[in-house]
Amino acid sequence: MGKKNSDLQKNTGPAASSRSKSQGKSQEGRKVTVFRYKLLSEKREKSTIIVLAVAAVIFIGALIWIHSGSILHGEEEMFWIYGDERIDFNSATVKEIVNQDMKTDESAEGSKTGSQELSVVINGGIYKGETMTAYNYFGPLSGVPVSEGSRVMLTIKTHQDGKHSATVYEFNRIPILVVFVLLFFVVVAIVGGRTGVKSLVGLVFTIICLFAILIPLLIKGAPTIITTLGMCAFIAAVSFTVLGGVHRKTWSAFLGTMAGVLLALLFGMAVQSIARINGYRLESAEPLLYLRYADVPVGIKGLLVAGIIVSALGAVMDVAMSISSSLEEIHAANPSLPGKELFRSGMNIGRDMVGTMTNTLILAFLGSQFSLMIFFFARNMSFNQIASSAFIALEIISGISASIGMVLAIPLTALVSSSLIARKN
Q: At 365, phi and psi to the nearest 5?
């Protein structure tokens, strides 16, 4: 009986009243926190929509302005090597191999060399449905032998007298490439989920910006380095907003990315000046020089540094977003952690990324010219001869400049992210 009275006093006494009050305050506090979180989420969503809407207006306006007229203003006629003849590039299906002369080149690891006379059916264009004769010339370095049923891309030349002739331009790889790209999209979407789909949207947006806006702007004579840097900033801002919305995480990643890219740019410009080398020493500079002779004001000197900016952008964005996201997760797990500790954590995470990311950039640059490196060593060229060549200098400047930008983006992103988180506002 005494025990029951004691339990009753515990449940109805001052202690119970105090506990109920504290529980009530705790529930009210949780309600206030949930309300604030919802309010903040709605505010971020509205800000994200506004940012993306402004970006869309800028993007569409730039496309309309750039493509409102011919980019080359008629100078492209200088590069039309076919005279007054009409040239069409259309797909076709091989109906029959009429004749062929084909040999095996053992020196080229069994590659086929020779020619084929084909009967083909045109799949598109003004000659769609017609059957015509086409000739296919191939060797180890160009062209491939085809068989019945193969899809090929033809160069159809229509002469002034109305007659036409056709040659096989290349094996039609468009369907294969489309399937391969779609497979990549499916894999990213399945593994990455919603974030993977967002990353694909950012990738498509990046490709459109580079090919539909940046390159036409450079052809129109826009300053090479400034235009490339501005376009990369626009790409980074939109891509981060699509991925994470308007959030201090994306702000940190964006600021870290731009700081890293800017440092890569400055380093590349300094070394370019000291090494006395510029975009005119690039492999692709010669055809661009012909454009300048045709009064197309494309800036060639700055293309080396512009290439550094574009190549560094992806790696720097990856590093910056990884660090800022990691620091947000650390803060969510331990909100009381001070800014100095967050910065230290960001540096520890970044140090683990330095080795692999640096190797990735350097190997990407070397891998793109791997066959030429084999040729250099097969010729038994001396180290002095190889190291002094413009080709090697270009690769070293590009690779190391991009790597420096990526590495320096680590402390900068960690500093910005830890500072924004520590402000608590």
A: -65, -45
Q: What is the DSSP letter of 162?
A: S
Q: Residue ranges per domain, the chain?
A: 2-66, 82-172, 176-423
pLDDT score recorded for residue 17 = 53
Scan for tokens 């550094």, then name that residue. 308
Q: Do residues 420 and 343 make contact, with C-beta atoms less than 8 angstroms apart?
A: no
Predicted TM-score (pTM) of the model is 0.78
**E strand or H helix at 333:** helix 303-333
Q: How far apart are CA 412 and CA 317, in angstroms?
A: 12
**Looking at the domain that runs over 82-172, which CATH code has it been given?**
2.40.50
List the one residue out of 243, 390, 246, 419 whose CA is nearest residue 317: 243
Give the model's confidence band at 262: pLDDT under 50 very low, under 70 low, under 90 confident, else very high: very high
Provide the Cα torsion 329, 331, 335, 341; round to 10°: 140
pLDDT for residue 18 is more than 60: no
Farthest-apart Cα atoms in the chain, separation? 120
Q: Is residue 92 helix, strand or coil?
A: strand
The more confidently predicted of residues 126 and 22 is 126
Report yes or no: 375 and 233 within 8 Å, Cβ to Cβ.
no
In this structure, what token pair is assigned to residue 317? Answer: 């964005």
Contact in structure between 414 and 343 (CB atoms under 8 Å): yes
Beta bridge partners of 132: 120
Q: Does pLDDT of 35 surpass 60? A: no
Cα–Cα distance measured from residue 374 to residue 367, given in angstroms and rounded to the nearest whole number: 11
Chain centre distance of CA 379 = 35
Three-state DSSP class for 306?
A: helix
**What is the average pLDDT value for the chain, to the nearest integer?**
83
State the pLDDT confidence band at 33, using cuts at 50, 70 and 90.
Answer: low
Residue owning tokens 């400047």: 397
Q: Which CATH architecture has domain 176-423?
A: Up-down Bundle (1.20)
Torsion of CA 272, 263, 234, 310, to 10 degrees: 40
In sequence order, which residues have a C-beta less than 8 Å from that of residue 305 and are 6 or more positions away?
224, 225, 228, 265, 268, 269, 272, 279
Strands 131-138 and 86-105: unpaired
Cβ neighbours, 10 Å, residue 248: 19
